[in-house]
Structure prediction request, 124 residues.
Amino acid sequence: MDRELNQINVIPLVDVMLVLLVIVLTTATFVTTGQIPVDLAKAAAAGDRQDRPVIITVTAEGGLFFNDQSVTDEQLDATLLTLPRESLVLVRADKATRLERFVTLVDRVRGLGFRHVSLAVIRM
Prediction:
């Protein structure tokens, strides 16, 4: 058995590459979202404003987030009071959110003096 090795076995290399590909594809889906997952409602028209808005997110369970950080209702009020009233406020609400929770939130934000309040939707 003194024969010369004149070819390379590529099967282990292909196995390793396929595993790496699966890992990259799996983690890429988590990196691209980068936000709290909410199922946004759909609308025929959606605005394309270029300002950097303040983002308030309401999850289906009623959880509240300010720029991707979990807050209570009182903490949200205190944080919003420190911002200029001309700021654009973007509300991202899951489509399963109770309407009462959404209306109460928007009413509170507008009651603090913010006039530019928008709802994030997905264009149909």
The chain has a mean pLDDT of 82. The domain at 42-123 is CATH 3.30.420.270 (Nucleotidyltransferase; domain 5). The longest strand covers residues 54-58.
